[in-house]
Write a structure and sequence with these properties.
Number of helices: 5
Number of strands: 0
Order of helices and strands: HHHHH
Helix content: over 70%
């Protein structure tokens, strides 16, 4: 009987030890669980913080990207405008070049025409000098200025009048009157509008 009681007592003590050990293990497990829970919470908070930080960075980069796209579009539009302006400017330059070339050609033609007119006037003056009789050569000084005046006159009219005049039969007084009349007509011609004058 005593043996049975001792045996039961030992079993109870073993059961108590087992319970105490289990309780301690449970408490340890609970502590571990609490610690793990804290770590999980901290990890979650850290993840949220990092997520917010990343979202902020993403928003900033997105804004910068949008701004860069707008600037690129504006630059492209401005470049297109500059290209159009450049093309228009080149077209204007070409027109100016052509106009200047035309003007230069016209000036050359006008200069040639004026030189031709002067040559014709000089030749006409030479004809006049040839037709003067030897007895009228005393008028040479008086006639020296005539070619310079004739080259600005209407050459055809002057030539017709010269051909119609019988210079060889005129006396000295008649020739002087004729020369005065011619010089007066030349002065009238010289007062004409300057459109047919020298190149400006």
């Amino acid at each position: 009987m005593e043996v049975a009681l001792i045996s039961q007592k030992n079993e109870k003590e073993d059961a108590l030890k087992l319970f105490s050990s289990s309780k301690e293990e449970v408490e340890n497990a609970m502590c571990v669980a609490e610690d793990t829970k804290g770590k999980l919470l901290a990890a979650k908070q850290e993840a949220e913080r990092k997520s917010k930080s990343l979202k902020a960075v993403i928003r900033q980069l997105s804004d910068e990207l949008s701004c860069a796209k707008r600037e690129r579009l504006a630059a492209s539009t401005e470049r297109d405008g500059l290209a159009a302006n450049l093309e228009a400017g080149e077209e204007k330059d070409r027109r100016i070049f052509l106009l200047e070339a035309d003007i230069l050609q016209l000036k050359v033609e006008l200069l040639i025409s004026q030189k031709t007119s002067k040559i014709e006037a000089d030749e006409l003056a030479a004809k006049l000098a040839v037709n003067i009789n030897e007895d009228l050569m005393v008028e040479e000084v008086y006639m020296e200025d005539l070619p310079g005046k004739l080259d600005r006159g209407r050459l055809e009219e002057v030539e017709n009048k010269l051909l119609a005049s019988e210079m060889k039969t005129k006396k000295k007084s008649d020739l002087r009157r004729w020369n005065n009349k011619m010089l007066e007509e030349c002065e009238v011609v010289m007062k004409m509008p300057s459109g047919s004058g020298a190149i400006k």
